[in-house]
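Milestone M4 deliverable, item 7.
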Amino acid sequence: MENSGFCNDNYNSGTSDDDMVDISGATLDFSDDVPQIEGDHFGAVSSSGGVTNGQAKLMDLLDEAVPGVGTYEDFNTIDWVREKSKDRDRHREIAIKSKQSYWALLHSVNDAFSGWLLMLCIGLMSGALAGLIDITAHWMTDLKEGVCLDGFWFNHEHCCWTSKETTFHERDKCPQWRSWAELMVGVSEGAPAYIVNYLMYVCWALLFAFLAVSLVRAFAPYACGSGIPEIKTILSGFIIRGYLGKWTLMIKTITLVLAVSSGLSLGKEGPLVHVACCCANVLCHLFAKYRLNEAKKREVLSAAAAVGVSVAFGAPIGGVLFSLEEVSYYFPLKTLWRSFFAALVAAFTLRSINPFGNSRLVLFYVEFHAPWHLLELAPFVLLGVFGGIWGALFIRANIAWCRRRKTTRLGRYPVLEVVAVTLATAVLAFPNEYTRMSGSELISELFNDCSLLDSSKLCDYVNQDAANITKPSNELPDRPAGAGLHSALWQLSLALLFKMVLTVFTFGMKVPSGLFIPSMAVGAIAGRLLGVGMEQLAYYHHDWPLFKGWCSQGADCITPGLYAMVGATACLGGVTRMTVSLVVIMFELTGGLEYIVPLMAATMTSKWVADALGREGIYEAHIRLNGYPFLEAKEEFGHKTLAMDVMRPRAGGRRGDPPLATLSQEGMTLGEVEALVGGTKFSGFPVVVSQESQRLVGLVLRRDLLISIDNSRKHQEGVVSASRVVFSDPPPPQVENGPPDLKLRSILDLSPFTVTDHTPMEIVVDIFRKLGLRQCLVTHNGRLLGIITKKDILKHMAQMANRDPDSILFN
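Output delivered:
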């Protein structure tokens, strides 16, 4: 099956790691004309959602361990109800044994403590990796412009810490740091120096990008992209083998540094969520409690998502809310507490490493605390409108480009695409200082307010008389813009266009790429431009009714850095559709407690506007693009269709559906059962009293059936093709002089979820969402009529929303 994955289409993995899976080599059945749970890769061990009564008995029945029992095939959805039932049974067993001996009691205590120990390990490991990524990425980014003579491992800032220059024009220069022009041609200014620095910048960018895409292509195709769409899908119960494996973790960590250092319009914040989830998945293998239960493992992955945001932004509380609001499918109260603990440990670990060198945890701490005025809500809302419009347009453009990449020859040449985009980015970025610097540095520059010691062109104001020197920086009056500020505004306008266009082509390429920083950069530039415009308007027209009463000449009325913060929040909200978690992240990120209301106003406005133009955020759009079976809890279904309209086979035999394939409770031989299983790819078979009555008894899974048959042929004497397969209890009398019966009652699920044929689809959709079902059976007066799978639900919802139902690839 070609082009089935977000990051791995058209890739052929060259690794032998057993964690790796190549989607392009998978053989999946996506046919629409089967009335059953189709595909031998679909639900091979998944029940209908009910408690699998015979699972434990099946394990006791088998004389030896058979690989695959109790696990799931790749690209399958787990059975949440069965997994939770297994966990409750395990807890009951531990509680009973704990009363029998002190050793069992200690085992019970260890089992209860293991979750917190796992959270501690995840926090420590993720925080250490995030610190390593931050330090290395900063050094390699500066390496494109020069090198430190005192130690090549120092970045520009660390190299100049011992510099004695403190004047406005020399404080950013130091003799220890040399540009490539100084090292190669011995000059630091003029056309030769500019050309050499330009060429070295482009060459380093191409080298970093080429190494990143080559490593991803050769060793870990799953290491590309943001990772958040796939993690959302995995947390909803989907299985993607190798996506959170140790090999993916190692390659993602290395290539994330290379991709960020190349100067592409991307960030590391989204991929850090993927890195943290990889850490959690690897560490889960040390604890049988989580290794053997997919539902418990997803509780850990939800906490790991919070850890990823915590180390990305230094926002532990925002990380917990991000996991709860944006990515998690099942989030019980104990997961909330453990997520908070893990995020705290990760933030403490990152703070101990101090990758930013400023003894602060947050990335964009703001020094100003000037009050904002009520009338400024109008420009804040305007920024929210801009963020919503840009977010909706960006999603449409990016999805259109990614779809073109998947369906045309462009997707066959991922290395060429990455190199071409990197070349265009580097060539266009170098002449503009605001595109040449990294995204984090740009946002930090835009968030800052001007003080008397700032030599930035953004702070080039006139009339800085001696009377202002005694005032704190946050009380400096609004002043007319100087020549440097005018030049900076033109450069920022070009940088805004640069970021808006190139991010569309960058996000989704075959390198690790986050979207938080580019989105925030677009909004921060727009906000700073609007903030400076409002500042100049207030200076020249302070007598207007708009400013009269709260802004007089010589007063500090407008803070452009605040507008940049609000704009960044609005654009990020328009792209991701985050709300509460976004405001908390921005508050923690900047430390600006006074600005909660402006951030809330911009966030709500951007979400309303973006939702009016398109209901999906960027992550949901990529999930739908890849055909993943994700039931979005935010998507409403209000159509008046019934279960009989969606089930297969359809009522009245419409669409030419073949008849339902079922097993009789007592009336089939082993040969007939093997012929039915061998001639179909269904992952489960309803068991009925008889083929004539079609009275439902239960559901048996394909894999359990095959394992039981294979085990019986090996260990039960006399079993032949003529042996009866019996699911009833008590079993019928043995046929005299006949071969022994094959009694498979223990693998029969006697409580599959069922609905009647007249059940409204609104209720069916809610059942699938809240119980995590993969399929349910449709009956009429106890008689089996058909089956509804998760794939059928998603196709029906897509069809009712006038979308392509064939875009749903998995069940």
